[in-house]
């Protein structure tokens, strides 16, 4: 009898119990998100629960269990944000169009005008498990109300109730008070007009049709589902609006509006220049310092290495904030030194050209230690025999560096330089902490600054603008994605051709 035939197999019951518990927990979270009017996120959690139950519950999907967490993380935290951002670019989503159509109707019909002549203070009196509303000025007391659902209560003359809730206790009932309607003996309806008063409230708008609201003054509002706003007969929009798909309208704005197109072109060119200049400056400075530290006759090398690596050891956001203080136009140490030596006080934060120079200087300071560390490793891989042979042929040290050393370290450096370019292309933290994109470009219809790169420009458009145009920001984000993808593909092709050329293979 074989050993494998008699070997006991593990019971699947514990695993199934764990899978069932986790799945039920995820389903509860999905249901809770649905109750919070977040169906999209509820659907994501529901899909996650389904995938988890199928893959970890069925034995035939054993191999997929090892990649499921990674695939789920990529789909939830990378693919979904990208797809959702692209989707927003095809909508009118903004600070004026945050709501759904149903919620917009509720907001407009809940607005009302208070009649000051009927406004009077109130107090709340407990009545067992219910409450009564006391109006001291008119001496009226309401029937018992629960304050747990919308309800109407009659008012009648009465003496002052024996017990009244303190003001802070009554304020805790404000949600129920806001849905309460009081009716006097002559039929006048009073509603909660604030934390302290009831009054006659005339609705500004009432719904008179599936896509129509009528104002108290007779104005008729019609729902325009193409723009996501109610409009008057004269075509005037009445906020708030609701989210609707608008197709390519955001992209048309980007390419046809001069107030958007011109600053975007300027910002795109500056972004490319900023990324390329940052890579060139950090590479040149880092390589130069690495070559100096490789000099065999240099004393105190260890001390110099520690000092030169310090900018890399300090968190970047701290260094950026320190430089923001150093470049302060009135009290910064840099301007104090320049003023004492040359009588100059440059306007680092208000002059566009100087602000860009400042950004490049700070980014070079932050980036050169990384390049220096890489260069120190790559320089040690260059054979000394090649350099000695060139020196024996009479080549100077400078010529040896540019003809022997540099060509041998550029190939391994190239992927890292491309990665550094991609990082600086989206270096939002530096711009946001140092200049916030300022100074602003004059004549634009959207927030755009001289030092803005595409990432910071999109961030300001989405979050720093009073209009918060999320849809337009999503459209620009898609354009940035396409540009970065094109640049990355071009770099990939260039690297492949360079590698093929070195190896003698066809590209």
Description:
- With about 500 residues, this protein is an alpha+beta fold.
- The chain folds into 3 domains: about 10-90, MalF N-terminal region-like (Methane Monooxygenase Hydroxylase, Chain G, domain 1, Up-down Bundle), CATH 1.20.58; about 105-240, D-maltodextrin-binding protein, MBP (Periplasmic binding protein-like II); about 260-505, Orthogonal Bundle (MetI-like fold).
- It is built from 18 helices and 15 strands.
- It has helices at about 5, 15-35, 40-55, 70-90, 100-110, 165-170, 175-180, 250-255, 260-295, 300-315, 315-325, 335-340, 350-380, 385-390, 395-425, 430-435, 455-465, 470-505, and strands at about 110-115, 120, 125, 130-135, 140, 150-155, 180-185, 190, 195-200, 200-205, 205-210, 210-215, 220-225, 230, 235-240.
- The strands form 3 sheets. An 8-stranded mixed beta sheet has the order 2-9-8-7-6-5-4-3. Strands 11-12-13-14-15 form a 5-stranded antiparallel beta sheet, covered by helices on one side.
- A hairpin with a 5-residue loop joins β14 and β15.
- The chain is elongated and about 115 Å long.
- It starts with a helix and ends with a helix.
- Residues about 1-5 have low confidence and may be disordered.
How is the topology of this model organized?
Layout: H1 3-6, H2 13-35, H3 39-57, H4 68-88, H5 101-110, E1 112-114, E2 120-121, E3 123-127, E4 130-135, E5 140-142, E6 151-157, H6 167-171, H7 174-178, E7 180-183, E8 189-192, E9 197-199, E10 201-203, E11 205-209, E12 212-215, E13 220-224, E14 229-231, E15 237-238, H8 249-256, H9 258-293, H10 301-313, H11 316-326, H12 333-342, H13 352-380, H14 384-392, H15 397-425, H16 428-434, H17 454-464, H18 470-503
Parallel strand pairs: 6-7
Antiparallel strand pairs: 1-10, 2-9, 3-4, 4-5, 5-6, 7-8, 8-9, 11-12, 12-13, 13-14, 14-15
Helix pairs in contact: 2-3, 4-18, 8-9, 8-18, 9-13, 9-15, 10-13, 11-16, 13-15, 14-15, 15-18, 17-18
């Amino acid at each position: 009898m074989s050993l494998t035939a008699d070997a006991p197999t593990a019971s699947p019951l514990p695993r199934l119990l764990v899978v069932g518990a986790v799945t039920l927990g995820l389903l509860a979270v999905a249901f809770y998100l649905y109750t919070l009017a977040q169906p999209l996120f509820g659907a994501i959690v529901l899909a996650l629960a389904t995938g988890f139950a199928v893959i970890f519950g069925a034995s035939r999907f054993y191999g997929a269990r090892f990649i499921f967490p990674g695939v789920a993380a990529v789909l939830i935290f990378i693919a979904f944000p990208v797809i959702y951002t692209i989707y927003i670019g095809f909508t009118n989503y903004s600070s004026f169009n945050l709501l759904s159509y149903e919620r917009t109707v509720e907001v407009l019909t809940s607005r009302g005008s208070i009649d000051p002549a009927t406004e009077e203070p109130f107090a709340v009196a407990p009545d067992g498990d219910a409450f009564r509303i006391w109006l001291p000025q008119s001496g009226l007391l309401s029937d018992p109300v629960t304050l747990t659902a919308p309800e109407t209560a009659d008012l009648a003359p009465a003496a002052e109730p024996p017990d009244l809730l303190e003001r802070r206790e009554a304020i805790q009932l404000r949600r129920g008070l806001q849905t309460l309607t009081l009716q006097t003996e002559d039929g006048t309806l009073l509603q909660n007009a604030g934390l302290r008063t009831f009054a006659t409230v005339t609705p500004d708008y009432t719904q008179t049709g599936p896509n129509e609201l009528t104002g108290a003054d007779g104005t008729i509002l019609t729902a325009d589902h193409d723009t996501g706003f109610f409009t008057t007969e004269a075509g005037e929009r009445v906020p708030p609006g609701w989210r609707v798909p608008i197709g390519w309208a955001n992209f048309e704005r980007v390419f046809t509006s001069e107030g958007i197109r011109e600053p975007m072109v300027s910002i795109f060119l500056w972004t490319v220049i900023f990324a390329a200049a940052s890579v060139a400056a950090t590479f040149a400075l880092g390589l130069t310092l690495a070559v100096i530290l490789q000099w065999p006759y240099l004393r105190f090398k260890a001390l110099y290495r520690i000092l030169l690596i310090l900018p890399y050891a300090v968190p970047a956001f701290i260094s950026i904030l320190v430089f923001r203080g150093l470049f302060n136009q009135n009290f910064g140490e840099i301007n104090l030194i320049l003023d004492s030596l040359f009588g100059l006080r440059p306007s680092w934060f208000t002059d566009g050209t100087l602000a860009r120079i400042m950004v490049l200087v700070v980014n070079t300071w932050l980036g050169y230690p990384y390049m220096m560390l890489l260069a120190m490793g790559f320089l040690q891989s260059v054979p000394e025999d090649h350099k000695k042979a060139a020196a024996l042929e009479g080549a100077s040290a400078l010529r040896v560096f540019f003809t022997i050393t540099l060509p041998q370290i550029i190939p391994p450096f190239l992927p890292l330089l491309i990665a550094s370019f991609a990082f600086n292309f989206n270096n939002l933290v530096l711009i946001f902490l140092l200049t916030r994109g300022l100074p602003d470009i004059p004549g634009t219809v959207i927030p755009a600054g001289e030092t803005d790169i595409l990432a910071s420009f999109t961030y300001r458009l989405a979050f720093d603008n009073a209009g918060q145009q999320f849809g337009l920001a999503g459209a620009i984000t898609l354009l940035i994605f396409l540009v970065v993808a094109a640049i990355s593909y071009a770099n990939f092709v260039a690297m492949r051709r360079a590698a093929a050329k070195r190896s003698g293979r066809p590209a």
